[in-house]
Amino acid sequence: xxxxSLTQLLNRITTELEQDKRIFDIPVSKFFxxxxxxxxxxxxxxxxxxxxxxxxxxxxxQMAQNIIMAWLCGSRTFELKTVQILDELEIGRPCIDMxxxxxxxxxxxxxxxxQSLQQYVMASMAxxxxxxxxxxxxxxxxxxxxxxxxxxxxxxxxxxxxQVSDFIDNLRDADAEIEKLRAELPAQFRDHKFxxxxxxxxxxxxxxxxxxxxxxxxxxxxxxxxxxxVTVKLNPTxxxxxxVSDIVNNQLGYKTIELVPSAFVDDMQMSRAVDLIQELHxxxxxxxxxxxxxxxxxxxxxxxxxxxxxxxxxxxxxxLHVLAVKLLAILEAKIPHIPIAFSAGVTxxxxxxxxxLGLSPVTVCSDWLKPGGYANGTKMxxxxxxxxxxxxxxxxxxxxxxxxxxxxxxxxxxxxxxxxDNNSKLPKKGDKKLELWDCSSCNLCVAVCPNNAMSRIExxxxxxxxxxxxxxxxxxTDLCNECGNCETFCIDVGAPFSIKPAYNIDGKIKNPxxxx
Length: 516
Ligand SMILES: Cc1cc2nc3c(=O)[nH]c(=O)nc-3n(C[C@H](O)[C@H](O)[C@H](O)COP(=O)(O)O)c2cc1C
Ligand code: SF4
Ligand code: SF4
Hints:
Elements: H1 6-20, E1 22-23, E2 26-27, E3 42-44, E4 47-49, E5 53-55, H2 64-72, E6 77-79, E7 96-97, E8 103-104, H3 113-131, H4 134-140, E9 147-152, H5 156-160, H6 162-172, H7 175-182, E10 199-205, H8 212-226, E11 229-234, H9 241-251, H10 261-266, H11 270-286, E12 291-295, E13 299-302, E14 312-315, H12 318-334, E15 340-342, H13 348-355, E16 362-364, H14 375-390, H15 396-402, H16 406-412, H17 415-418, H18 444-448, E17 454-458, E18 471-476, H19 485-489, H20 496-499, E19 502-503
Parallel strand pairs: 5-16, 6-9, 9-10, 10-11, 11-12, 12-15, 18-19
Antiparallel strand pairs: 1-2, 3-4, 7-8, 8-14, 13-14, 17-18
Bound molecules: flavin mononucleotide and iron/sulfur cluster (2 copies).
Residues 449, 451, 453-454, 475, 480-486, 497 line the site of one iron/sulfur cluster.
């Protein structure tokens, strides 16, 4: 992949907004503008953020434009794509399967550490620029504050390596990177005093099987050596094989989800987790730092659907929501007063109630890879505003008081909504073969692509006599990692990213013969 430079990124944003009233193909009508009568802010690890939602680590936080798209649709906490020492990993393709609940085989960032650093700093600078960009101010109103959270994996040795250490230091104080990028800014913004402290918090994404002692050492290392507040993202295996199997296979009826019994033995056990969380909370308090947990990472399962490569896949979406709230109810009872972040099967339907559980923040991945894409963030927030107003609540604190606690929430949960029967319908497909030009124009490839690699253009004038459709769909292949998500949702039969005309990032067609 070859991401945008800062100049290209800002040019694209300003030109597209002016000419088409869109940014990265999202129409301005789908951006989020907060209702000034409500205060949606929450506190995330000591920082006030203007809304309770944001993207979970994954495909929505890898490149600068992804983070900006999420921000335009109301996100204010960004769990950055996990970085690790192995920055030349070959990821099997396709890596995302959102046909039903959600499966992936992504590990970590696909860029070199230096490129990831640049993408995160660029995103931070671009948002600061856009917050003051007059045409956007009118559309978005007061956007309020936001935070970026680092996500690191997967073992202590890698995290302590000079490469990852430098990466973290350069996000803790991004002055050097900002100065490298400053010349690319529009003249009137070149003297702007940018925020240099891009992150103050890290989430540890522990890989399945990471020993608890190592988790402890990583947390202490990040706090002591990098001055970071730390969140540990826990795995749903913590519930134990019996409970997970009962919920997923029996209560929710997913006979086709095959658990991996050894993962439950290798992963952290509940009693050790409770001790560890208490110990790390105390360590953080004694060191003047903050400590929290995140529920949950994906569930490792046998890859029996044969859509993704490899023996194992990582499950997300509807069934994970039930597992994560079950875990939440248990942990809240055992260890109250620990800040808890959430990422598990959040959709517009359950967003308000999930926010009502007092989580900080609520993050999303799978739902924004489905039709609607990033704009589902706007839908979630608009629904929350409606629900809060109906209940007479003006702040999230009041909303939380009004809503169910986790143990009541799990008892009251509409299990049918999360059941296999409600989550097994395949995306709609016609019988038309996807062609280079003209297609069913459903626009779904554009909405579900996390990278905005699929784009809609007006049919070129010199081709209007040969083509029937007003719009054509193209793939900016520099931005595409062949994740496969556009193929899953394409109404026609075929993979848009490989069949549609290929453009490079400068807007030039890669094979000019395709135009004739
Ligand atoms: C395609 C994809 C890639 C992901 N990559 C990461 C990652 O790099 N690091 C991480 O900690 N979690 C990763 N996750 C897990 C998500 O951050 C999230 O915790 C999980 O998907 C549950 O939320 P959801 O049900 O809203 O998807 C990924 C999930 C998906 C679907
Ligand atoms: S164009 Fe398709 S395959 Fe490429 S990144 Fe986007 S969704 Fe994935
Ligand atoms: S390429 Fe497929 S998904 Fe994209 S607009 Fe055409 S029919 Fe829809």
